[in-house]
Specification:
With about 230 residues, the protein is α/β, with parallel strands linked by helices. About 55% of the residues lie in helices and about 10% in strands. It is built from 9 helices and 5 strands; from the N terminus they run E-H-E-H-H-H-E-H-H-H-H-E-H-E. The chain has a 5-stranded parallel beta sheet with strand order 3-2-4-1-5. Helix 2 runs antiparallel to helix 3 and helix 2 (about 40-55) packs across helix 5. The radius of gyration is 19 Å and the shape is globular.
């Protein structure tokens, strides 16, 4: 029977790439299936390229201090979509199989991407990236601590309460139809590869026990998956 390990990530975790790489190296999976799709990864790479060029031309960011802030935020922006990038890289080096869940998310148009770049350049001139990244790091630390306690407890109440209180938790953008799609994809892979170790990489909220039984974890519970947070 296949061994299933479901890894929960925090999308805005600046230490996420290194955490995920360490976890995959430790687990040595035969197959990694990851939330997302190639178009999103390619689109983000295009956004970073456009943003880098825009920053070098920005009159508002000519001072050394503002350029330094912009570079820090650019590093932060590069982290986005790290799950697919890190998972693909691991599989390529280890000679393992990588699969997208082929989650049909919304593609960003060229016009939307250009507008996002304009907004980001304006943002760089006002905000302090150091402060924002400290806030994000603190949030990630608190979240991991709370979820680790919940995941390692026999009492499902903390997770159920959390799921019930997350705004828009049961929506197309979070838990719902996408989880059904991802669960079906994992079950198909398990059926086709019955004697392998399979790691599924998804956002942490897809791994919560929830009162409506709609999360990815709930929908795959018959596979007896092990749950982990990257750490």
């Amino acid at each position: 029977m296949a061994q299933i390990i479901e890894i929960g990530t925090y999308h805005d975790d600046q230490e996420g790439p290194s955490r995920l790489e360490r976890t995959l190296t430790e687990l040595t999976p035969d197959i990694v299936i990851c939330e997302g799709f190639q178009g999103k990864l390619d689109g983000h790479a295009k956004y970073i390229e456009m943003l880098t060029k825009a920053l070098t031309k920005s009159v508002a960011l000519r001072s050394k201090a503002k350029k330094a802030k912009a570079r820090k935020w650019l590093d932060y922006e590069r982290t986005a979509s790290y799950e697919g990038r890190v998972s693909k890289g691991y599989c390529a080096l280890a000679g393992k199989r990588f699969i997208w869940f082929n989650d049909a998310g919304k593609m960003v148009s060229d016009e939307e991407r250009a507008l996002n770049v304009q907004r980001a350049v304006a943002f760089f001139g006002k905000e302090d990236p150091d402060r924002i990244m400290r806030v994000m790091s603190t949030q990630a630390h608190r979240l991991y601590h709370a979820l680790n306690l919940a995941f390692n407890s026999s009492d499902p109440s903390p997770e159920i309460i959390l799921a019930d209180r997350v705004p828009n938790y049961y929506s197309n953008s979070m838990v719902g139809p996408r989880d059904e799609h991802m669960a079906n994809a994992l079950k198909l892979i398990v059926n086709e590869n019955p004697d392998t170790r399979i790691v599924a990489v998804v956002g942490y909220f897809h791994l919560l026990r929830d009162p409506r039984q709609l999360s990815f974890y709930q929908r795959t519970s018959e596979l007896n998956p092990e749950r982990r947070l990257i750490a």
